[in-house]
Structure formats: C-alpha cells, structure tokens
Specification:
This protein is mainly alpha-helical. It is built from 11 helices and 2 strands, in the order βαααααβαααααα. Helix content is 64%, strand content 2%.
C-alpha cells in the first residue's frame, strides 16, 4: 500500500502558519512595548486589568486588544502544533522498498489499464511516497523467495508448498498475470532458513575443533585461531545482513 506523503504541501502549510504566528507575535511584543513606555505597566502585570481595560485607554495604533490577540494566537499555535506533529508522523512512516515500488509501478503501467495516465503521475515521485506496510527484518530475502516462486511456477509450487498462495489469497484476483503469496508462510520459511544458517555457522567450527582435537593437531598451529576468527566474522556478517540487530547486540552475540 503506497501513498503520497505530500511533503511539499505540508512544508508550505507549516511555513504559512509559522509566518502568521510570527506576525502576531511581533504585534504582541509591540503592544507590550507600548504599555511599558506609555504608563500601561499595570495592564502588563494583571490579566484582569487588561481584560477590563476601557476602550479609551487602548492606543489608536492597536487593531485589537491584547486578550483578543492572545486568543487568536492560541488558536494558530494549536493548529501549527497539530500540523507539525502530523507532518512528523508521516515523515516517520516507512518508505516503500525498491521491490514494492517496482511491483506497484509495473502494475499501474501495465496491468492497471483502468487507471488514467493523468492520475498516475504521483507514482513517479518516489521520494515523496510512504508505505503502510510494516517493514520486516528480512525483506530482501523475502523478495528473493518471491522472485524464485515467480520463476518456478510449476504445479507443485502453485498447489501446496509452504511458500505458495493459500485459498483466501487466490480469491483476491482471477487475473492470471497477478500472483499473490502468503506473507506469513514466506516469513516462516525465511525464519527457518536463517535458523538453519545460524546453526550451521555455530556447528561447523565446533566440529572442526573436535576433529582437530581427535587428530591431536589442535593448538599446534595458527589454523585454530584463524578458523575461529573467520567463523566469528561470518557469524557477525550474517547477523548484520539478515537481522536488524544493533551494533552492541552483534558484538555481544559474537563474543558469546
């Protein structure tokens, strides 16, 4: 699900609100300076006095009273704050992956014949697009599996392997050119593959050290140290490539 964020529009609206507030702020400060220099200090010290101020005591240069200006300023500030927070929330949404973007773009340009070209221009503004699809740790590996499934469109793959489309997914479309795959099954398969990879990376050095111990060659050459370093690097690289583990988590896992 890709949508346009309208970042430029939000920027224009925020700048417009910001300038309106700046103008009102300057007007408020001018009022304060006028009262401070023309005997109106009591109105600055007491809100009640300022509210009950007689019209005859209001300077002719003022277009409105200070309480009225503060009410308008409060409304503008709240509108600006809400707009700013909304813009920040939209900015924090996930950007579409290259694979998802290409998939939607290909559909709109080729298969989405019911769409008018004039209404498709937003899809080409890639930097302003957001995705409501939550990011996954192994998205690129998921993509590799999906591409493999598209290449291997044999009967076995289409009918019932753990990676294939389920009945509910198939019901989404009857277009033979559109293919859906069950995300949960693909995610399960990816997790299984990564688990196997981690187990292999952990067991191979243990097996090699065991063989060296049986042969009586362990500790006699530098091969043991080199082997441990090599598999530690491979293990760290695998964690970095296949997961969203942070640096300190990778260091802790490698040290363990």
């Amino acid at each position: 699900m890709l949508f346009k964020r309208f970042g430029i529009v939000f920027s224009r609206l925020l700048l417009n609100k910001q300038d309106e507030i700046r103008y009102m702020e300057d007007e408020l400060q001018a009022m304060d300076r006028t009262d401070a220099t023309h005997g109106g200090v009591a109105y600055l010290r007491s809100r009640d006095e300022d509210v009950k101020r007689e019209p005859s005591d209001i300077p002719a240069s003022w277009s409105q009273t200070r309480p009225h200006l503060l009410e308008k300023l409060e409304t503008k500030i709240l509108e600006y704050s809400e707009l700013l927070l909304k813009a920040n929330q939209l900015k924090g949404l996930e950007k579409p992956s290259a694979r998802d973007y290409r998939s939607v773009l290909h559909y709109m340009e080729n298969d989405g014949g019911q769409l008018y070209e004039g209404e498709m221009s937003w899809i080409y503004d890639k930097e302003d697009l957001i995705s409501l699809r939550p990011g996954r740790e192994h998205a690129w590996l998921d993509g590799m599996l999906e591409r493999l499934l598209k290449i291997c469109r044999c009967g076995l793959v289409r009918v019932g392997t753990p990676l294939t489309r389920v009945k509910e997914t198939n019901a989404r479309t009857d277009d033979p050119a559109v293919h859906y795959y069950d995300r949960r099954r693909i995610s399960t398969c990816v997790t299984f593959l990564i688990t196997i990879l981690i187990l292999v990376l952990l067991m191979i050095p243990i097996w090699l050290l065991y063989k060296s111990s049986v042969n009586g060659t362990i500790g006699q050459t530098n091969d043991t140290i080199v082997m441990i370093l090599a598999f530690t690097l491979i293990f760290s690289a695998a964690l970095s490539a296949f997961t969203k583990a942070k640096r300190h988590e990778i260091v802790a896992a490698s040290a363990g």
